[in-house]
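To whoever is on call:

I kicked off a structure prediction for a single chain this morning and the downstream step that reads the tokens threw a length-mismatch warning. I double-checked the sequence; it's 81 residues and nothing unusual in it as far as I can see. Pasting both halves so you can look.
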Amino acid sequence: MEEIKEITPAEVKEKLERGEKLNIVDPDRLEEFDRNEEYIFVCRSGRRSENVCRYLQELGYRVRNMTGGMLEWEGETVPKR
């Protein structure tokens, strides 16, 4: 089984601060994903998103799991609407 790529909350924050376009996902709608894009998956602790990454990687998607999840996120968040 291929290893899951990971990214730390600090690395995600740095990418956002540089203005990079990121696809950060707390997954819900698989049919909307583009296999040519890379997606960063996030959950509260990083465990559920890791499992989703394993599944999607096996289906051929380019994915990364944000280690530590939102528990380790130190950047700003956008409130739910």
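Update from on-call: the warning came from a stale cache, not from the record. Cleared it. Sanity check on the structure: The chain has a mean pLDDT of 90.
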